[in-house]
From TrEMBL:
Species annotation: Linum tenue
Subcellular location: Membrane; Plastid, Chloroplast
Major location (coarse): membrane
Residues in coiled coil: none
A Pfam family it matches: PaO
Biased composition (Low complexity): 31-59
Protein name: Rieske domain-containing protein
Length: 426
């Protein structure tokens, strides 16, 4: 592995634990934005010397006499030391990397503007999403995948898409009437209502010159199941384009919606655990919410702490502790059961047909029962059936079972997801 040199300008590891250095310090969003993230833990610079990667050899040392440690003597501080994070030859400069040091989550990324590796606390100061799930933006900055905040190599926040420096906020919410039943919020194009404990409805009225007044409601029902688990039910009643629900299969609508809902799942899973660590009533000390688009989050947290004492009443069924984080494949495992079974069966049938056709071609070639042109057509048909079966199996696995959502290399679908999060999707 590479040997890491230690430049004189390093800061000790305990800089991540220092409350002043790790807290967001975004005082003025619409002016210059000072540092909100701690400086790099390690600025890994490989030296020319190399070490053998073979297993270490234990060497017996002579017995030493016991050393009496007098009371009050200095104790070793594990958090004031330097630790190599990763050999740079094993890191990809095109994407951020999640690592751990002493149980602390950090993100390692290449800052091409300073031509150096950077290591930050793996937590966006906005909503605590892991920065390692983000990407390196076209300007060479580290961008959070959740809401697009961008940070330079010194930890300065350079872009908040929901509150651009040269224009108004993308989405504005104004809280109204917060009480034990929930709260209301005004929108530029309608209103929003949170009905405690689990229903959120967004109502919008839009005038269309050609189609008249278009009304829609987007309702989310998030049912608490157990600590760390919820059931989401949603509906989209409207007075236009109703034919879509009658023509387009339900599973196809689910696939499209999952691009947004599922891609946020892991980010919310991590956020929930970080808020649990700091305490529900202390969330404002960890999250920095400067935009009007954050008003619904602020409203819910205020309601949750004021009227629910910051926790769900499980009536003794659960202790309230979150379960261990499952493997990512298990966390992201979901399916629309009826369509999943049908498409799986179709893929199996196509594969059997393909194998059967290839067998027919082989037998016909041996016996000369089918012309050369006929055998060619059967072979082509068998190959097409097999290719379609493999594509269908991949489609089912990705959209019905497990989608990893690599945010660092967004495809067209993920670009739409990011636009939706920022409030600029059509």
């Amino acid at each position: 592995m590479d040997v890491f040199s230690t430049p004189a300008h390093f800061q000790p590891l305990n800089s991540l634990l220092n409350g002043d250095s790790s807290k967001p310090k975004l005082r003025n969003v619409r002016s210059s934005i000072p540092s909100s993230l701690p400086g790099p833990l390690l600025h890994a610079a490989p030296s020319k010397s190399r070490l053998s990667s073979s297993s270490p050899v234990s060497v017996a040392s002579p017995l030493e006499p016991a050393i009496d440690v007098a009371a009050g003597e200095e104790k070793f501080d594990w958090y004031s030391q330097w630790y190599p994070v990763m050999p740079v030859c094993d890191l990809d400069k095109r994407e951020p990397h999640a690592k751990q040091v002493l149980g602390m989550d950090v993100v390692v990324w290449w800052d091409r503007n300073e031509n150096a590796w950077k290591v930050f606390d793996d937590m966006c100061p906005h909503r605590l999403a892991p920065l390692s799930e983000g990407r390196i933006d076209p300007s060479g900055r580290l961008q959070c995948a959740y809401h697009g905040w961008c940070f330079d190599g010194n930890g300065n926040c350079k872009l908040i898409p929901q509150s651009p420096l040269d224009g108004p906020s993308v989405i504005d919410f104004t809280l109204k009437k917060l009480g034990i039943e929930g709260f209301d919020a005004e929108l530029e194009f309608g209103y929003c209502k949170y009905q405690a404990p689990c229903i959120l409805s967004i109502h919008a009225d839009v005038d269309s010159p050609s189609k008249g007044r278009r009304r829609m409601t987007l309702t989310f029902m998030c049912v608490p199941v157990s600590p760390g688990n919820s059931r989401l039910i949603w509906a989209f009643p409207r007075n236009f384009d109703i034919w879509i629900d009658k023509v387009v299969p339900r599973w196809m609508i689910h696939v499209a919606n999952n691009l947004v809902l599922d891609s946020d799942l892991y980010l919310l899973h991590i956020e929930e655990r970080k808020i649990k660590e700091i305490g529900s009533k202390n969330w404002q000390r960890a999250c920095f919410l400067p935009c009007k688009s954050d008003a619904l989050v602020v409203g819910y947290r205020r309601w949750f702490n004021k009227y629910a004492d910051g926790e769900v009443d499980w009536r003794g069924r659960f202790s309230g502790d979150l379960p261990p984080t499952p493997p990512r494949e298990q966390l992201m495992d979901r399916s629309c059961s009826r369509a999943y079974k049908s498409l799986n069966a179709m893929a199996t049938v196509l594969e059997v047909v393909a194998i059967g056709l290839i067998g027919v071609v082989a037998a016909a070639t041996k016996q000369g029962a089918v012309s050369a042109a006929g055998r060619t057509r059967l072979a082509i048909l068998g190959s097409v059936c097999y290719a379609v079966s493999r594509w269908l199996a991949h489609f089912v696995q990705k959209y019905f079972r497990y989608h990893g959502y690599n945010h660092s290399v967004p495809d067209k679908a993920m670009v739409f997801v990011q636009m939706f999060r920022l409030g600029v999707a059509p």
